[in-house]
Design goal:
The complex is a heterodimer of chains A (305) and B (147). With 305 residues, chain A is mostly helical. Chain A contains 10 helices and 7 strands. Chain B has a single domain (2-144), classed as Jelly Rolls (Sandwich), CATH 2.60.120. Chain B starts with a helix and ends with a strand. The chains are: A mainly alpha (305), B alpha+beta (147). Chains A and B meet through α1, β3, α2, α6 and α8 of A and α1, β1, β2, β3 and β7 of B.
């Protein structure tokens, strides 16, 4: 074997090794959301093979669409003044601000759509499109989406389906592109916006005993999911900042109490829909609510600035 | 010599492209197959999918809200014949197991009070011992009832 061939062989082996290592690292990054826990699957005694796997852990936040549905179901009214103005879209130039406000606009457009505010829905979808493009999430929201919304102004089901599809496109493209951190920031932006709209719609809890307050209290449970979700990408500087904000929000939630009792399943054979029965005991004082409301407003102002 | 170089280049391209192609397949599977299982519920828009191998499991944590009716759909791509899933409360008490329901891929439910639940999924080993374990995409999707 001549020297040239040996050199080429060494080069080729090194190249493959480097590529292999890079590829593994790349996968690791994409999976930085994974909690590493080794699960050795024991097959029967005659099977020597055992698998070491990395258990996948997902933390799923309420999507902007679910947040808007919760708002509406809790008796929310529509107030366009609460939404983040689309005139602000040109201000968002960093990855963090674009991602946060893509989430915020996504919740705003979902909220508008559930109240049949089609013009606002189209406006907010257009603003979302700009931010998605700014984030390099091409094709997640294209012109056909805007056109479909405009052509179906009286068909809420089509509008909701279209919105749902654009969210799925955005989330899956980010996942595919190894940009889990950006996806998490978008979700957290959308969640904070829902909390902001909800708390803004309750002027004084001492005068109101309504479902909206219950849902705001319930967000204490989702806040834990938010924190765990962000922890998975904590090496990202933008995520770290938002994570710290969420720890402050957690402190604001300290005086909001929520106790969950045992869950019992009751199956309805007629509808085939199971009911999970339980008794939650919650408590929130006026002072605790106002403290929470102030904190939420502070974060939302910071994110939309 | 030229063919040797070609082999190396092909191997390199394959190593780079394979993870991307697999992710894209998973995305398409979730969008074009699993999402349809949610009808007439509306998909919430979130994407939770991963490539799992026989014997592997995964968990998803989510808060479900009082008053909202949900459908969970857990689907495995063609190479995986069946997927097990369980819904548990935070104390890991099993509330639903699809194994006891003929490996149903959907479950409809609502919660009286807001609850955090854990969805556990596992790809059981069905391949004969002599064969290589199969891998495929597993998607966990949620539908929301609108009315």
């Amino acid at each position: 074997m001549n020297k040239g061939l040996i050199k080429l062989l060494i080069f080729a082996v090194s190249l493959v090794a480097v590529i292999f290592v890079t590829s593994c690292k790349c996968n690791r990054q994409s999976d930085d959301m994974l909690s590493v826990s080794t699960d050795e699957m024991a097959a029967d005694s005659s099977t020597i093979k055992s698998i070491e796997s990395v258990k996948q852990i997902f933390y799923s936040l309420p999507s902007p669409l679910e947040t808007a549905m919760i708002l509406k179901r809790s008796g929310a009214t529509y107030n366009e003044e609460l939404l983040n103005s689309i005139d602000n879209v040109s201000r968002y130039n960093t990855t963090k601000s674009m991602a946060l406000n893509l989430g915020i606009y996504s919740t705003d457009l979902s909220y508008a759509s559930l109240f049949d505010q089609t013009q606002a829905t189209v406006k907010y979808m257009t603003a979302s499109k700009k931010l998605a493009e700014g984030l390099g999430i091409l094709n997640a929201i294209d012109n056909s989406v805007i056109q479909k919304l405009e052509e179906n102004i009286n068909n809420r089901d089509v509008i909701l389906e279209t919105i749902s599809e654009t969210f799925l496109n955005t989330n899956s493209i980010l996942e595919e592109d190894d940009r889990v951190a950006v996806g998490s920031i978008i979700l957290v932006g959308g969640w904070v916006e829902g909390l902001y709209i909800a708390t803004s719609l309750v002027p004084d809890i001492s005068k109101v005993d309504n479902e909206m307050v219950d849902r705001i209290v319930d967000q204490k449970l989702s806040l834990q999911t938010v924190i765990n979700l962000l922890k998975q990408s904590i090496s990202n500087a933008d995520v770290k900042e938002i994570y710290n904000d969420m720890l402050e929000l957690e402190k604001a939630y300290d005086e909001v109490k929520i106790m969950v009792s045992n869950v019992q399943v009751v199956n309805d054979k007629k509808t085939n829909v199971a009911m999970l029965r339980s008794r939650n005991v919650t408590s929130v004082s006026t002072a605790a609510f106002n403290k929470l409301k102030t904190k939420v407003k502070e974060l939302r102002t910071k994110y939309t600035a | 010599m030229r063919s040797f170089v070609n082999i190396i280049i092909s191997a390199a391209v394959l190593l780079f492209a394979l993870p991307l192609a697999t992710n894209a397949q998973c995305k398409n599977f979730a969008k074009k197959v699993c999402r349809l299982e949610l009808a007439p519920y509306i998909h919430d828009g979130n994407y939770n999918a991963a490539i799992l191998t026989e014997g592997e499991d995964a968990e998803l944590f989510k808060t479900f809200y009082a008053g909202q009716q949900y459908r969970i759909a857990i689907c495995g791509s063609e190479s995986l014949t069946k997927i097990e899933f369980m819904v548990m409360d935070v104390d890991r008490k099993v509330l639903y197991s699809n194994v006891k329901n003929n490996y149903a891929i959907t479950w409809d439910f609502k919660v009286e009070n807001t609850q955090q639940l854990i969805i556990w999924v596992k790809v059981p080993v069905v391949s004969p011992k002599t064969e290589e374990l199969k891998s495929g995409c597993v998607a966990i999707m949620f539908g929301l009832k609108t009315n």
